[in-house]
Amino acid sequence: MEKTSDFSAQKNAETAAPSLAEAKWGAPAVKAGYQILPDALLRGQHLLKLTATDIVVIANLNQAWWFVDQLPYLQPHTIAKRMGISERSVQRSLRRLRKKRFLRQVRKPQPDGTMRYFHDLSGLRAELDQLARRDIRYSQALQGKSEEQ
Questions:
Q1: How far, in Å, CA of 13 to CA of 56, rounded?
Q2: Collapsing DSSP states into helix, strand and coil, what is residue 100?
Q3: Helix count and strand count (H, E) for the chain
């Protein structure tokens, strides 16, 4: 049941946000695709000891995470090509994220006998939940107050 409500919430966010997103970024860019990335990730990157490479790797994984109940699958060489860096740099970033338990690699055999490596970001999600709860903006949002950013 939670999957359904999570999926519904995701679909509502996706259908509600484009008008705001289009106002900021323009309709062509938004229609080509956009993603939801928590502010806590950017505000807390220093506290989480994330490098700029780590943030962009996470953004790439997030871009491939289309549904709440389906882990993202994206190969390091694809991320490296998008970023214009070496595949080895992406692999080091993924290893750092796993070491911090922000990311877990999940192996899934495919029908053709090959193995795919999916990325579980639930550790990062849990850490971001904690960061957000310590942020004054979170408690104000719970109280229905708004604060200019």
A1: 22
A2: coil
A3: 9, 2
What distances in angstroms separate CA 1 from CA 7, 38, 62, one per listed residue? 10, 24, 23
Residues in the chain: 149
| Confidence (pTM) | 0.77
Q: How far apart are the first and last CA of the chain?
A: 35
The two structure tokens encoding residue 71? 């882990």
The rounded percent of the chain whose pLDDT value lies above 90 is: 63
Q: Provide the token pair at 102.
A: 């922000």
Phi and psi (nearest 5°) for 120?
A: -100, 115
Sign of the dihedral defined by the CA atoms of residues 40, 42, 47, 104, in that order? positive
Torsion sign (Cα): 16, 138, 47, 98: negative
